[in-house]
Fold each of these.
Amino acid sequence: MTDSVRLPVPSTYGTTLREHVLAQMQAAPGATGQYTSLLNHVSLAVRLITSRVRSAGLANMLGYTGETNIQGEEVQKLDAYANDVLVNVFERSGHCCAVGSEEMDEALFMEKSGKYVVLFDPLDGSSNIDANVSIGTIFSIFRRRAGELVPSVDDLLQPGKNIVAAGYAVYGPSTVLVLASGGSVDAFTLDPSIGEFFLSSPNIRCPAMGANYSVNEGNFSRWAPGVQKWNHWIKSENKEERRPYGHRYVGSLVADAHRTLLKGGIFAYPADTKSKKGKLRLLYEAAPLAYILEHAGGAAIDGERRILDIMPSELHQRTPLVLGSKDDVEAFARFAREG
């Protein structure tokens, strides 16, 4: 009789996302389990989107739907699919009273008794889909405002400092879910063979200073003088100040932000003469990424102000965004102030 094959059990890989979230709940006084359930629904959505992204070229999911979203951008087929998945998952959770999405003109209201609201970019970097470049999902979770019997758009229009959890998924060589919750930033990698996320990078810390900068230099001529001076400075040679920095730019926000979080340095999408208010969306791109970077020891500003302090006035509000290592972000702010 031959020996049976010994297959690794989940504990071989370490802590699962479910175990991690449950441990946080047990450590929180008065926790009801709704927040934990909501995060588990986030995990479900990411796994569903991963499956479709991995087979997009075979399932006729590449290309455009023929529709245009509120941003004036053509909607990719995968954009629409990811948005539908997230909306359905949060609606089924029963814990969410409203959601806001890049792909929807207005907020969508759900369970009136739900304690949370969620804002998300269902598929960031979707213009890169056909080129097989890393893309991702970005989200933030807020508690609804106290005292309101019926959810309203005001529940969604909160400053980033009110976020209770934020995260993003990167659909790259592997699917990685980065979650800022309970005071730490942790990364979980999906094992596709069993459909489970395992803790792969606990307590991520962004270095105080990096060696790379990430910016679209094609916009140089439209930048303010201070930003142009910063760009010249970061590329100029100074061995004592560890310059020049290397240039790394994917053009997929979630991929560039993920690299900056792990390796340090700076990502910048400043305002310019074409996009005077900035191009990135405050509520479902800038704020969640700022929350993650700050909880990992980094910083995030709009060029001057802390992103998490900005009070939004509309759902699809845009903003400049500069994030990364504290020292590198402060250097950018100094040039922006001096002009």
Amino acid sequence: MQTKLFVANWKMHKTVKEALNFLNDFIPAVEKIKDREIGIAPTFICLESVGKAIKNTNIKLCAQNAFYEKKGAYTGEISPVMLKDLNVEYVIIGHSERRKYFNETDEIVNRKIKSCIEEYLKVIFCIGETLEERQSNKTFDVLKRQIEKGVEDIINPDYIVIAYEPVWAIGTGIVATESQIEEAHGFIKERLKNLYGERAQAIRILYGGSVTPENIYSIMNTENVDGVLVGGASLDPVKFSKIVKYEEQIN
């Protein structure tokens, strides 16, 4: 059975002070939990402070992005080597906001994934279709392309976690139905099996897209869901702790 993974993606929110205030409330709420993984991805400027605050806790330090080169004249970028130096364990790569606002292509995503794995960083590889693509019945075509191009030339999938985030559900309040999630996750699992055989069984598949304490129980009880990548609701320590303790949120 897969260890469930719950990751907070804070995006461009929280100063160092605000991040530490969050942890003061969040850590006591989840400190006894041992049967699942919890990750927090703050902004780059908060990584060191958050890393120190969660040391010796059950919370993993995650980053929201990384560049594909180890060092060089790349103004404004952060390398996997630097993230490793800060004891980062997971890196989010390929988020739809990176693809949309920063023009990240499947090829760039692939280079970033490979660069992170070279430093033994685990990758949360984000994929998902737009509303237009879903309405045009292109969901599976998009997911197939993103998966195959994203993991191209990656022989060892042990450092990869997939996050299915339908773009139309991110920050919109619209949540994919259980059947939509189950269908997409089932397709992803099948594609991974075609690429990696039995080794694909170990690849966790997260769901992301307007996850809240109110819908987490039904999401987590959907087939092939191994955890969640949470945006807005993860900014509140009470809400995110409820999401982590999803069994208690039976409506």
Amino acid sequence: MLWWLQISIKDIIDILLLAVCLYYTYVTLRYSGSRSLFMGIVTFIILWLLISQVLQMRLMGALLDKFVNIGFLLLVIIFQDEVRKILVTIGSAQRWRKIRGLFRDRGEQARVEAAYVAPVVLACMNMARKKTGALIAVQGNMDLTPYQHAGERFLASVNARLIEAIFFKNSPLHDGAMIIAGEKICAAGCILPVASNPDLNKDLGLRHRSALGLSQKTDAKVIIVSEERGTISLAYRGEIIVDITADELRELLSAE
């Protein structure tokens, strides 16, 4: 026991685990437009603990206890997408892939880059030079199959010429998004969720908002080629990096 605080090691571990859970929840909701609601919930929990546990107000404490019991289920329903994302983040194999990457030889890394990263970078650079708009979602740990249903589903190797042909201005799939999973092109002409955050830059077009929308709901890396400016951007985990070079795009796609 830490006698001057009357706190045991178990209590310290308990507090640290709670802090980690709150941190991951806050990070998940940070760019989804739910940050204010999250802060309101945290404030309510603090008031509940103060009234029910510290001040021990019986009437208010009993009412708040009942509300908390029901409120937990309501929160799961309201934040079902965010809860799913948190659980996938916790249970993902990304950390194991990072450890495995330490022991992966350069030949394997070069093979992955040649099969998927290099053709995507080449196609994006060519389309940016021609000012051909494009939206490409690269699947991470979270399955993107639900977003494939609205588009044309097929299975093809990642090829720069094929990507450019799909996003050619007269192509019927030009305005939709392409989804790449498992180093294969799985679908094109897909519709992605549009970000609804009111704090977004008003200059962002529909492609950028769709990329941000998907990156807020999944761990996919979404590439945007601007038809107006001929620039390349990448959205990931609710953030967007604009006007990136070929080397930067290659590095971002290769990163675990």
